[in-house]
Amino acid sequence: MPIHTLPESPKVLKNNTLLGWLMALPIMAVLTFFLVLPILMIVTVSFWKATEFSIIPAFDLENYEFLFGSNVTYRVFFNTFKYAFITWVFTLAIGFTVAYFLAFHIRSLTWQIVLFLLCTIPFWTSNIIRMISWIPFLGRNGIANSTLISWGVIDEPLDWLLFSDFAVILAFVHLYTLFMVVPIFNTMMRIDKSLIEAARDAGASGAQILWNVVIPLTKPGIMIGTIFVVTLVMGDFITVRFMSGSQSANVGRLISNDIALLAYPSASATAVVLLLTVLIVIGIMLRFVDIRKEL
Amino acid sequence: MEPRPRSFYVLGAFFALFLLFLYGPTITIAILSFQGPGGGLTFPMQGTSLHWFRDLFEQQAVGDIWGSFRRSFVLGLMVMVTTVILSVLGGLAFRKKFTGSSIVFYLIITSLVIPSILVSLGVGLIFSQSGLTVHWSTSGFGSQLTWTLPFGLLIMFAVFNRFDKSYEEAARDLGATSWQTLRHVVLPIIGPSLIGVALFGFTLSYDEFARTLLTSGSYNTLPLEIFGMTTNVTTPVLYALGTLTTVFSLLMIGLFLCLAVFSGRRKKRAGSDAGKGML
Q: Is A240 a domain residue?
């Protein structure tokens, strides 16, 4: 099949489409069966009825009416956005600083790679273990409390360190900051260093260079990191459950509680609303960045 | 070399603190897992011993952790192999810029951003409504692929975006068929990055919790087993298990990284034979 750089003929294009689909077929099959069909199934079941023992096909808006009629829903959605926003602020600030240090202050490529790997290795280990590992730190008799007491900062151990919103957000930041570091570092490495020299030669101060040159050029990386962090936090249920000691709730927990009660239709309705919310948030963010160009 | 600016030291200290924040807690539970038999979940250490590690080997004490480890390991390998093969095929497909490729692309992005519990719930519902039994090697396997495939494909996109097409053109000009070009030119060049895809495939599967929650059936994978333990085990045996699986993860990561470095070196040695050709 001779394909040269000549303008491609319609036949070649048709061939490409056929071959392309053929090679993408396995992926499409997996995603159809384990992503598209499950979503359709959830949408369908969200209109079904539930009895104590089983779920019955129906077309019933009751699940949604109940969901939107309940104050809990609004509180839980507000909580979800709150977690996402606070986590986003911290992961962005930390992630940007770390990536900036790696990209602009480390001079040898080998060291850049080594330090970058150090930042990413925890991503490949278990999230649950990483959550558990906060217990000896934050517990009532944990390291944080005993240190603060021995320094004389506090007299009584603080109760809100573990099993609180504070713990939830700390765990989120701990788990997900590397999702900010990686894309931001990746974009920063592609910034032409001569642009920064030019800015310095033109008399810009360090802060001006950061604000007017580095940050604008890093925006795509920041957006990709933001998409990761926001979707991971919004879809989470296990971190909130574990770190809040079941005292706080987000939408994911609402769904998992319904699942535990075998109330699948109601879980599905909540899931549909959550999915739409996440997709809308992503849709807004994608207006600011072309992911395909950034890879 | 010009001297380091002061900001270097400030940022360097920040970076060191960040690493401490990342690794500190894990190191703490590693230390605490060597508590003596009377030890609890926090400091101070009550002596040192291997007591809690020994506990892990007694079946009844902690449930079926070795069985779940075996399942997680096999599942990880299955997901790894599938992710590598499908990602390469997908990456090659996208190079054809075929009509409708953006549908596939947006499906992959959806797969990446969809809350994991939806996959779990949806797959669970499909299996239960169609009378199939959920099992870690069928429904669990498929659900995990929706998490590993996007990473594999994004890596392949990045790789092919940097791929120099003139190698293929050279091969074709020398009379290689498409298959020969793929087999002897393209695959060897992208080989080392496949190690990266494999690393993602294995470790993401090995640690996945939410997507297997409702899809693994009556036999737990290791993360599910560990999570179950958090609700009823209040001794350092939990830390011992955490330490062991983390060490296992680190060994796997180390293995993959060594493979990557090794194959990079080999490529460098074998790659450039310019000027050394047979005369």
A: yes
